[in-house]
Amino acid sequence: MSLRIEHVTGGYTRRPILNDLSFNVADGELVGLIGLNGAGKSTTIKHIMGLLEPFEGQIFLNDKTIHMDSTLYRRNIGFIPETPVLYEELTLKEHIEITAMAYGLDVDRAFKSATPLLKLFRLDGRLEWFPSDFSKGMKQKVMIVCAFIIEPSLYVIDEPFLGLDPLAIRDFLKLLNEKKEQGASILMSTHVLNNAEKICDAFVILHNGKIYAKGTLSQLREKFKMPGASLDDMYGRLADEEGFLI
Ligand SMILES: Nc1ncnc2c1ncn2[C@@H]1O[C@H](COP(=O)(O)OP(=O)(O)OP(=O)(O)O)[C@@H](O)[C@H]1O
Q1: Residue 185's beta-bridge partner residues?
Q2: Atom of ligand 1 nearest to the CA of 209
Q3: Which of 35, 104, 131, 159 shows the smallest number of beta carbons within 10 Å?
Q4: Which of 48-57, 96-105, 237-246 is least confident?
């Protein structure tokens, strides 16, 4: 079992934002983290990344908490943030080099892993470019390449679709599928429900920092008595019933 979140209550101050969250992401599973603005998705991700400490409960990655071995824990997570974070003074090539160094990878091996990804995202031939030369989508692709070359056991991906063009989204979804097949665990937060529905094996729906529902699409359809409904339809119904706007 790769990621295990057990009864996590947490937040930024002593006032909890997350309340008693429990869910798992198994090896080879892609779980969609879904919820309205302010539901607690990014806060959940910050706890998983070890940027925030749970007030109660525990988070296990490959059966270890961050306190058992923080270096190993962090090395096992590849994070793709919603907003690309790049170093303005470093080229694309140097970004790959510092990622390799930060994760203790052999630099040549990192470039070997990066080459097909750079080609896929049409970034090959741009290794000497600086972030200021890249569009928003290109920056997002650099983040994706850097996360994928470390070959982590868990990918944590925060709203990946916003800056990407349709071709890049298609390629990115294909890459996620390949990683799943190789046994990686993936937690992806997104508002783009039709993409989530295409690729996620299961969903965790957050509302006001609590788990509103979780399960596969067919389990959610059964739970909400909406046979054949899309994730979008179910989410709309939930929103109406709860009296909140999407
Ligand atoms: N740095 C912070 N300090 C204090 N409270 C915060 C901070 N960041 C977020 N919050 C609060 O935590 C709650 C959950 O926010 P969070 O960013 O986790 O939501 P989200 O589901 O990721 O939303 P979005 O879809 O808009 O990205 C909100 O009430 C928000 O106001």
Answers
A1: 154
A2: 14
A3: 104
A4: 237-246
The helix (H) or strand (E) run that includes residue 20 is strand 18-25
> Which domains are delineated in the chain?
1-76+153-246 (3.40.50.300), 85-151 (no CATH)
Cα separation, 181 vs 157, whole angstroms:
17
pLDDT of residue 243: 59
CA neighbor of 32 nearest in space, from 234, 215, 210, 174: 215
Probe target for ligand 1 pocket from 41, 44, 52, with the most ligand atoms within 8 Å of CB: 41
Sheet holding 77-80, edge to edge: 77-80, 154-158, 185-189, 30-35, 202-207, 210-215
Q: Identity (one letter) of the amino acid at 128?
A: E
**Tens of pLDDT, residues 97-121:** 999 999 999 999 999 999 999 999 9
